[in-house]
Amino acid sequence: MSKPFYLTTPIYYVNDRPHIGHTYTTVLADVIARFHRMLGEDVRFLTGTDEHGQKVEKAAAARGIAPKALADEVVANYTDLWQRMGMTHDRFIRTTDADHRATVQSWFEKLLATGDIYKATYKGLYSVSDEAYVTETQAKELQAQGLAHQLIELEEETYFFRLSAYQDRLLAFYKEFREQERREWVQPEFRFNEVLRFVEGGLQDLSISRTSITWGIPVPGDTKHVVYVWFDALLNYLTGAETAWPPDLQLVGKDILRFHAVYWPAFLMAMGLELPKTILAHGWWLMGEDKMSKSKGNVVRPDTLLRFGNDALRFFFLRDMQVGHDRGFSFEGFMDRLNADLANGLGNLASRTLSMIQRYRDGRIPALPAHRDGVTRTHEGLGRAAFDQYLENARRNYFNYALGPLWDYLRGLDGYIVEKQPWVLAKDPAKAEELDAVLHLLWQALRMTAVLVAPVMPGMAQELWTQLGMTGLVADQRVDQITWDVSMPERIGPIQPLFQRIDKEKEMSELETSAAAPAEAKPALDVPELRETIDYDTFAKTDLRVGKVLEAERVPKSDKLIKMRVDLGFELRTIVGGIGKAYAPEDLVGRRVVVVANLAPRKLMGIESHGMLLAASDNAGLPYLVAVPEEAHPGFLVK
Ligand code: MSP
Fold first, then answer.
1. Which residues of the chain does CATH 3.40.50.620 include?
2. Which long-range contacts (CB under 8 A, 24 or more apart) does 383-390 make?
3. pLDDT digit string (tens) for 335-364?
4. CA 164 – CA 206 distance, rounded (Å)
5. Quick one: which of 366, 423, 447, 578 has the fewest CB in 10 Å?
6. Which residues line ligand 1 (CB under 6 A)?
7. Atom of ligand 1 nearest to the CA of 22
8. pLDDT above 60: residue 522
9. What per-residue confidence (pLDDT) applies to 290?
10. What is residue 15's predicted lDDT score, i.e. its pLDDT?
11. Nearest protein Cα to ligand 1, atom 12
12. Which of 490, 518, 524 lies closest to 504 in space, CA to CA?
């Protein structure tokens, strides 16, 4: 028996909850996993969390909890989200799992024995945010970008991996690959070129242990050292492989490509193991042109988008992102895409087709008539071409190039309906065969579309499948064996809209995450009048303090009120704020706020609130909490 198709995502750091960037990678992996199952393959799909290292140690220290406790908390966020999104991974691996620790320690020992790992003293510049030593060139780049503050000087005794010894073997491997028909060992090709240039620039040995931190897997026999997070993290793919080695496809973001396309294959060469077959590096979801980041407060969380349905989010991710490139996210663009392609597009075509079959043929699906005219045959041909193109691009993991042409084809069918005017044909008994041909073609096209898009939109595809009158699970179909002449059910199923049109204006005004508001949606400002002049002493009576929200929950029976525990540095307060329409409780926890600290307490829905948060507000009365930089500590006076 052939080995399973082995697919991995990066394992996510546990210093933050998942945002749409992490969600995107896992969705892409899940779509590919489902697609391969529908190709009749056995699939092993691995995802999980990367829990050791300085970032997590620091994030936990900032919260005053143990790293493992922080990891457990964040892991619960991930597993809960993946479960709600119906992800089909076979294992959720944590680098704190016992079997993983054993893998890392045993390989460390073996490579020490072969001389691929050796101990020496290292002195150099270290990037805290990347958890990696940087070369002089990289340090200069960071300085040029104004990021020099992330660098610290380190001197330590460390274990090295003999990366320099693998430069030639890596280059030979890449070059050999580029001469093959399947040129992209790294997809897309321009990312492969980046890797090549990096390796051609020369490789230095890689420090793979740390003495500066304790949160990690101890180096066997030398417990002053813990294993460097990346050596630890990359080996998760070995721990989680079971019988599926080597990986057929490893998904990574462009930022971690170097680790996967250079260090990782070098480790595997040293281990004498087979290399992964393909590394796919995707780009980033940006906010405007900026990176999403917690400190910029522009992070979009998946739950903000999941309100429109899991299938809708999955579709948007795959349709809008050109694999390998970055893409600016906007809430408006998101809704436009869903309205155009799911409410109109597929949804409209399905409801038109099914209701015509209902109305003109009493729900009976017409068989393929012997005579079809040129127009109909043309659309049959276009359909075959779009389906073939879909399969070809999906096999290469380029779902955007699969979905685009398929949706063009569906749009063409709208034109076909307009051209054929079934409502006119239906009035003329002599045109019965022509009408049958139209209805049959539309039904067939939708049936095959349901199969093709099932990996992307499992729920909606199944819904469509059932409405078309098909029985069983669409996911049990072979996606590469869809044919025109299938044995058809007699009747269609009950009809329902596939996707409700989104009321964009309403959504924009109710937008929960202020960060997700596109820059172009400027509220018409109706500026309130300036209040009477006061002197400084009057102002100074207001005691404004920096606070940090520790806990937040909605006040039952109120959509506006949120009850918070706020750390003011000198004491903890309960504060009830009317910000529930603009903020979710989980977005508040950890956030710094400005508190009117000497405001007399008052009761709101039975809860005593001691203090008030400062917020700007727009015409609709939506609050925008005043932002405070992370460096300002709870208790600082604001004046
Ligand atoms: N722990 C490492 C990976 C170790 S794999 C052996 C790591 N974790 S991460 O949580 O920071 O990032 C995980 C993945 O999320 C990366 O592939 C990264 O590219 C991806 N994304 C993070 N932000 C993203 C966007 N804004 N958009 C798309 N993906 C992004 O790196």
1. 5-282
2. 383/409, 383/441, 383/444, 383/445, 383/448, 384/484, 387/448, 387/452, 387/482, 390/452
3. 999 999 999 999 999 999 999 999 999 999
4. 8
5. 423
6. 10-13, 21-22, 24-25, 50, 233-234, 236, 252-253, 255-256, 284-285, 292
7. 15
8. no
9. 85
10. 86
11. 12
12. 518
- Is residue 243 within a helix (H) or strand (E), and if so which, with residue range? none
At residue 521, the pLDDT reads: 39
Length of the chain: 639
Q: Which of 366, 308, 359, 310 is nearest to 335 (CA)?
A: 308
- In the chain, residues under CATH classification 1.10.730.10 are 313-319+328-476
Q: Are 543 and 637 in contact (CB under 8 A)?
A: yes
Identify the residue whose C-alpha is closest to ligand 1 atom 29: 21
CATH superfamily of 313-319+328-476: Isoleucyl-tRNA Synthetase; Domain 1 (1.10.730.10)
The continuous run of DSSP H or E covering 516 comes out as none
Q: Per-residue pLDDT tens for 171-204?
A: 999 999 999 988 899 999 999 999 999 999 999 9
Using the atom order of ligand 1, give the atom closest to the CA of residue 286: 26
Q: Ligand 1 centroid to 252 CA: how many Å? A: 7
Mutation probe of ligand 1 site: the residue of 9, 11, 12, 327 with most atoms within 8 A of C-beta:
12
Cα separation of 592 and 594, whole Å?
7
- Rounded Cα distance between 394 and 66, Å, is 43
Pull the structure tokens for residue 101. Answer: 């620790």
Place of tokens 């590394």: 279
Q: What is the pLDDT of residue 106?
A: 98
Find out whether the peptide bond into 188 is cis, omega within 30 degrees of 0.
yes
Residues 523, 529, 534: CA angle, nearest 5 degrees: 130
Percent of the chain with pLDDT over 70: 97
Helix axes 399-420, 374-395, angle to 10 degrees: 170
How confident is the prediction for the chain on average, in pLDDT?
Answer: 92
Residues of the chain with CATH 2.40.50.140: 536-638
Banded model confidence at residue 520, pLDDT cuts 50, 70, 90: very low
Evaluate whether 493 touches 355 at the Cβ level (below 8 Å).
Answer: no
Tokens 């190039």 belong to residue: 401
Distance 587 CA to ligand 1 centre (A): 20
Mean pLDDT (whole number) for 477-501: 92
Q: How far is the CA of 12 from the centre of ligand 1 (A)?
A: 6
Kindly tell me if the per-residue pLDDT of 518 is higher than 60.
no
Question: Is the pLDDT score of 439 beyond 50?
Answer: yes
Print burial letters for 434-467: b (CB count within 10 Å at least 16), e (below 16).
bbbbbbbbbbbbbbbbbbbbbbbbbebbbbbbbb
Residue nearest to atom 23 of ligand 1 (CA): 21
Report CA(107)–ligand 1 centroid distance (Å).
25
- Please tell me the distance between residue 99's alpha carbon and the centre of ligand 1 in angstroms: 23
- For residue 529, the surrounding DSSP H or E stretch is none
pLDDT tens sequence across 301-315: 999 999 999 999 999
Per-residue pLDDT, 88: 98
CATH of 5-282, one of 2.60.40.420, 3.40.50.300, 3.65.10.10, 3.40.50.620: 3.40.50.620
Answer whether CATH 2.40.50.140 is correct for domain 536-638.
Answer: yes
The protein residue with its alpha carbon nearest to ligand 1, atom 30, reads 21
- Work out the burial of residue 25: count CB atoms within 10 Å of its CB; fewer than 13 is exposed, 13-18 middle, 19 or more buried: buried
